[in-house]
Amino acid sequence: MSFYREGVPHQLTVDFVGESICGIPAYSGKYKWHSDGAGYAWYRLGQTFNIPEGGATLTFMNNFEIEEEWDFGYVEVHDLFDDE
Question: Model's pTM, two decimal places?
Fold first, then answer.
């Protein structure tokens, strides 16, 4: 497995032998999203869903390590078909 930083010339290549997945497993199912943990970084994880006419419920598990009075997380929902 090789890791590269996107958008910059490859100055360093790290070849890793071992498990390709580590850390905390998905709460359920076999997939999870991870936003990395770099300081002073803005990350956005996005997904588009078709909501049924009768509505829908958003549920998710959140695993975080937050620095008190500094870090935060939020969920934003936007209707792509509503201009308001």
Answer: 0.44
